[in-house]
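Exercise 7. Predict the joint structure of the components listed below.
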Amino acid sequence: MAASWSEIVILPRGGQPGPGLRLVVPELADKPAAQRALAAFVDPVTEVGGVFSAWGTTTSGGDADPFDPSDLSGTAPAAAYTTAQAQRLYSVGPLPGVTDAIAKTALDVLADLGLVSAEEAAGGQGYAERLRVEADSADPEARLASLFNPLIERGRVSSAADVWQYSGEAPPAVRLAGDEVGLVLEVDLPEDDEALLRLSREGVPGPDGRGRGPLGFQLSDLHAIRDHFSALGRKPTDIEIETLAQTWSEHCKHRLFNADLEGAKGGLFKTFIAGATRRVRAARGADDICLSVFSDNAGGIVFDDDYLVCDKVETHNSPSALDPYGGAMTGVVGVNRDCLGFGQGARPILNRYGFCLPHADDPSMLYRDRAATSALPTARGLIDGVIKGIEDGGNQSGIPTPQGFLFFDERYRGKPLVFAGTVGLMPRQLPDGRDATVKGTRPGDAIVMVGGRVGKDGIHGATFSSVALDETSPATAVQIGDPITQKRLSDALIDELRDQGLIRALTDNGAGGLSSSIGEMAEETGGAEVWLERVPLKYPGLSPWEIWISEAQERMSLAIAPEHVAAVITHFAARGVEATEIGRFTDTGALVATYDGRPAMNLDMAFLHEAPRLSLPVAAPPETATDLIAEPDLPDRGACLRAVMAQPNLRGRTPLIRRYDHEVQAGSVLKPLQGQGAVHGDATVVRPLLDRPGAVAVTQALFPRLTERDPYAAAVNAVDLALRQLIAAGAPLDRAALLDNFCWCSADQPERLFQLREAARGCFDTAVAQLVPFVSGKDSMFNDFKGFDAEGAPLAVSALPTLLISALSVLPDWRAVVSMDFKAAGDALFWVGPAPEPALGCSELAQALALDHTRLASPAAHADQDYTGVQAAMAKGLIASAVAPGWGGAAAALARSALAGGLGANVEAGWTTAQWFTEAPGGLALSLAPEDAEAFTALVPDARRIGTVTEAAGGLSLDGEGIALAALDAAYRGNESGEIRS
Amino acid sequence: MSSASNPTSLRGPIRPHLSAPATQQSGPGVLVLAGHGLNCEHETAFAFQQAGGRAEIRHIDDQDALVQALEQAQILAVPGGFSFGDHLGAGKALAARLTARVDAALVGLVERGGLVLGVCNGAQILLKTGLFEGAGVTLAPNAGGAYLCQWERLQVSGTSDTPWLAGLEVFDCPIAHGEGRFAFAPGALERLQQGGGDVLRYDGAAPNGSTDRLAGITAHGGRVLAMMPHPERALLSHHHPDFHRRAALARRRGEALTTFGPTLRMFRNAVEAAKQ
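Solution:
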């Protein structure tokens, strides 16, 4: 560490409120050096700056400076702040060891200026605090608390003048005892089952006897491990136990999804998800579009003869529950790495997101501990944080984020669900002729870790998300994102290195860190050897097991032929990315790690990758409701529409959409806001290559409330809706694929497993009926919170069992895209598909009006609808607008087409109010020019004319009951900032 | 593959995200910067290529090659993005690096009559380099505080004589920024107006609270343009949010929409000006 320090303070000019920075950097030599630093750091129009050193003070208001602050305020900067009495200064900086991206950039700039050495810059010797000058607050401590997360940051409140002086404090540094450096422990596996389970719950005991954190093993796992090592005649090491915990975790191996269940021998995944894909691919024969399914970080399908697209949707629920901002951000940059780590590396072309959240006005406070000292974020803080996390993660990575959904329910208060997905584009063949979907690691290849350094971040992330969130959940499981570090890595990898033939294979370091990435890559060659002391660390003092399983972000692992290692490392270095050779792949059949040459791990690969299969009972929940009502008493359809369009899940979210850059890469064809009325749509479409006509459409669908009552129907509905949304956008089903995210709660309970099985069965039936394959998925089985209220009373909140279906499709030509807004008065309205049955159970209308005992639609009645005629009409350009009814039923769908187009409609379908608002499979609402009606009905003979688009003044009339567009608009937009603040 | 293992061959231009390499062998040279979080280099290079320029993307850290490219290019584009994460304030860190490493070549390009475009983060960067030295102008956080990605109607000043905007009066373009509010030191706005550098305004209220509704300003006689809206994202007609309605109505008239939107004109203007 540097011996002495300078402090650089940047504040808004003239004592105004606003943001600032305080940087602690290796000492700047003298006044000219300080002035050069200020010239780079301080914006002379809006900011003032000072450099404070042991040798004296330098401010940006030098004699020759035309922007001397004294010219503006009549006082020196410090005086400006001291005289502005009604002000507070809030300072927030990272806790020691937490990624300090601001300090790193500051040091880069100082190195460019020659004011600090390259070694000091690379060593991260600095510290940065974000400052905010604000008007005085009645409760500054409460205001401060709202500005930072104590798990990863520290904050203080002072006056601005307090920081405008030399403090002499060195940057906070991580001081680990370091007595576990190089230490490898042997672990006793007790005979007693209770003791074994305690070991799993509390973790491997460290030298002090205290457990290192939950391992998440099943009892049968622990027996298998004990038997394995007993046969070897030795005890396992701590690294070996941690590696098995990571590799066998629910998060990594999806134990529950692969368990034998009644009605799904071989597991739900094999039976219903991979099973559907196998069935679809066989039926498609030569028209199969799958290029890589379930075996890589994402699923890949054909884009055209030369390119493929891959897709992956991740969940980041547990990290987001503790740190909403960091959890969501690492969710999006993490799934970006799944794309970068797919095959030989795909370029991210689109991000999507999804939030299942409590209502913003939910006042409840939940605590992880009985003493009520460790609070979960407030509902408001949770919503703000996850929205901002996706914003910063996506926008800073230069990937458009056009597609997303919001779903609100109070049962997401304990564990929110945060989904992040990334679509990527990759050539199908590399210039040297290799199939780009194939990895190709060979024995003798070097293991090179590239990207961020390793710290204590995210220790036990994978095992932690495999158990319920409670008091013992480790705070170090929180991960910190640094999108710019990853962007440098991504640019160098995809734009420069991939096509050079220097890299044999690569994968993401995600959950489980090196233990997972190298463990997986080593399967190809049959072994690997890792030299843990070579892994670059953020700070000294980590023990070998921590290095091995840390989930520090922005890292990938590469396999490189020995003759190319130097070239690759040199190139990464030229791009400001650290790359380090940390081992080699072998064919010894063992995963080996050493520290300074001393053995730390020697695990049999076959044992490592064969987690014992679980066998679990399922039980149907008791039948509850009877005498369900098909046609409840309802207000008129106008009033129902007003209520439904104002529902949190349906209403406008323009402020949110505008915070996510959905235009970068310049490929947008169908945007998140559609029509002159700017209404959010169901599908978005982008062109990933501006010199080819192909385009990618994406959609999402979910019915969590229905899952509780009829999980099979919920799955059918979700798959069917995601596909109908594609069709409505003009995207073909024969080039479409599906992704599943099962986010369950208490999933080892027989009744929850029953629901899981039924939902998976619904996925299978619908995918097979429409011949669309599943290509990727990720599940999360324990979205349960167990904690306390403010009085210390125990409470539990479980998330709704939630199945998110994401779909994508490749349009051969983007010109086939259809938007949902009505285009012209006089256009003919058609309905394609079955008339909705009256069944409002679990619908948005039932939610809005608090209806009980409403009937559920018959499951799967219409999920095999044939839409090929509609697709042919779209390809001919006959369709002016199309929308797939989902939440809010056909009524809400037409309302959105009307609002988006700024036009009304007069509709005579002959349906009851319940039919208008039913949310069930099947159905599309289309409008087209009257002169095209004949050509259209020739292609779609069963299409039913249901009405006519009118001028706006006509409003929307549904079977004689209407609503003015202004009233619809007010319902849709009236509270669009209620949940989402801009 | 053998030549590829030589690390120096990796330090050439970055290939644009297109399926075919650019076929354009003639036309003015356009240098597009990349690296450290800039992220619009590919679509910016595409826009110049469509306009007839010979666009080349280079990483800002390849210092020698960059100096050489700056000496040879007739047009420089600094694209949008989040350079260095905007950690110190938008554009500061990358501007400091450019100034420290290639300042002379940058100023030299302008002094010999070259054109410079900075878009969004590129504009924030340009304002902090020597090209706007002494102008007393900066880009401050949006008045509303939030990042905004939305389409805006823009208006070219009647007195503008920048080659970039010749022939354009009113056109639509998306913005995507959190720090896009032009702010001035006392007297600086008046100086800008007197010099005719106030070239581009929002047509209506500025979404970010920008002084004088400014969306873009020039220096060096109009050859250097710093603008917050993204013209490369309005290049194609399907980029426009009203495209699908326009296309449906045009079809009924038996017409088809043009491939390009209005901003192709900007890139063509620069290419034509550079030829002279």
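Discussion. Chain A touches chain B through 95 residues (CB under 8 Å).
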